[in-house]
Amino acid sequence: YLNRFHLNQFISKKITNSALLKFGIEFDNQGLSTADALKQNRFGAKKNRSWSTIYGGWEKQSFGLRIGTTIAQDEITPYYNIFAHSKNGKLIEWNSYFKYEAVPEQIFHWYREWDKLFEKWLTAHFYIGTLGKNMPINLNIDYNNFKRNEYLDDVIVCGPEFDLSDYLLSGSISTQIPIFREWKIDVQYRHIFEHNFYSDGIANKITIGIIASEKLFKRNLFAQIRLWGDAYLNHHQNLAYEGFHYGPYITDDTNLALPDYWVFNLELSAKISKMTIMWKVCNILQTAESITNRLFPNLNDDFLLITNSNNFPPMNRFITFHIIWDFKN
After folding, report:
1. 187 vs 197, which has greater pLDDT?
2. DSSP-derived secondary structure for 230-283
3. pTM to 2 decimal places
């Protein structure tokens, strides 16, 4: 089992109409126990760890700064976060931050007697987008740099070392192209320029689909259908993921590299007054397999049973039904 506890408290004080002072403290605790005998012998049957972050900050309109420290047993790490964003109501909006923080090592990798708790992460993010109604365009750029603990290298690396970067650099772009009325083509593309240990190993992720919205019954019912496909392409051959025990890890067994695949999904929703009813199907081709086989008799099984993890059977289908009711005074 895994227990997690997070407490976040802060006080703030306005010093002018546009400036704000803030002081805060965060406390975290994690506990883990495993019944796996191998993991007990190697890492210990139980783990428990706690840490706290104390910070002070200043914010004024579209700019802010937080400085503090993160404290654990025998470890003190500085913390800072510089952030800025555009003012409301502009045709072009943007936001960015630059942050240095202590991030606890993945709990399955961590062992108190051999390892430090924290990894030091330096992250930067930049977003810019247009607010135009006809064809919005959004661009994101993300950078992450961290250094693994030495013991973690010994545990997760099987075979020789690989030329894997300590930093992660990725970018994404998205837009919605109008067709007519409230019908749109939705397109998203993300590319990882440089992989590090915590990247998902997927170099290119593409989403393309159609969103059709209509107001029916004298505009009293808002109906929407969304049909889209997600592509996961160019997996890194030396990055793998074990869902329960290790999390991400590096391997020299290229047979563990996941194949490229597409998965197609469907979502239907209807909103009346304050209530929304939603039905969603992931992997629609497998859900309607009999119809799919008639329309595409030579379709490869890889489009019906998706392999997105080496630790689980291929993904079949996933159907969800939601009723959302907003209550307001």
Report:
1. 187
2. EEEEEE-TTEEEETTTTEEEE-S-GGGSPPPEEEEEEEEEEEETTEEEEEEEES
3. 0.78
